[in-house]
Amino acid sequence: MEQTIQKQIQVDGSWVAVDVYGEEDGPAIILVPGVMADAAGWAEVARQLSGWKTVAVVNRRGRQPSGPLGDGYDIQTEVDDAAAVLREFSDVRTLFGWSYGGLIALHLANEVPVPHLIAYEPITAPFGAGALPALERAHGDGDLDRTVEVALGEVSGLPAAVVESLRADSAVWAGLTAVSSPIFSETAAINSAPQSAELGRWAERIDLIVGERNRGQAPYGTSFEDVASRTPRGVVHELSGQGHLAHLEAPGHLADLIDRLSN
């Protein structure tokens, strides 16, 4: 399906833009991206989903064309924003979150009923905690190149050679820096989020997805296991052949799994 409209939703101290595909307000799935991602990065997945009449992809605050993070930003800010997005649609059937977005979705489902929650490799503390001093310095200096370098190398654990290959592609690097300004604040929010004994308490159904390449592997696979251990009603599914960036590397494969989980 193709994008229909873009909604702008006013939230406390800022605003969030939501790209809507298909019907403007039919039975809906809401997609919440994570760190170093925006709605544009999830467009191909959104176009290929067929299990809902409406697909809404959130541009979380801190990335264009949404507003700034604002004062006092933490995970509750994101939970409140996601709740505001859900209220904009009359028939939300599924809430999907990727990475940090998955953690946001699970915390939201501790506060409000959610019919169906899907989280792809949700992360939790102490994810990236060791990189916080370096991220804080880069943030204070306004050095987006250094922010991306730290996020890829010290948080995601990519080898230096891979980071340099990404830097060598000017278009790819520009895309990464364009969504990097919130990284320090978001990583701090992940590591200061409440450690609930159970996540997703008000979700009627929970499906958790881990990429085959990351299962049991740090940092994403091990953080996923931490989240899964606190989501006792979650059913774990493995996406074959994929890692953390399935939405970019195999959007159709990911969309197929999400569609199957809607049945």
UniProtKB/TrEMBL annotation:
InterPro entries noted in UniProt: AB_hydrolase_1, AB_hydrolase_fold
Segments crossing the lipid bilayer: none
Pfam families, per the entry: Abhydrolase_6
Entry protein name: Pimeloyl-ACP methyl ester carboxylesterase
Taxonomic lineage of the native organism: Bacteria, Bacillati, Actinomycetota, Actinomycetes, Micrococcales
GO molecular function: catalytic activity
SUPFAM superfamilies per record: alpha/beta-Hydrolases
Domain AB hydrolase-1: 29-251
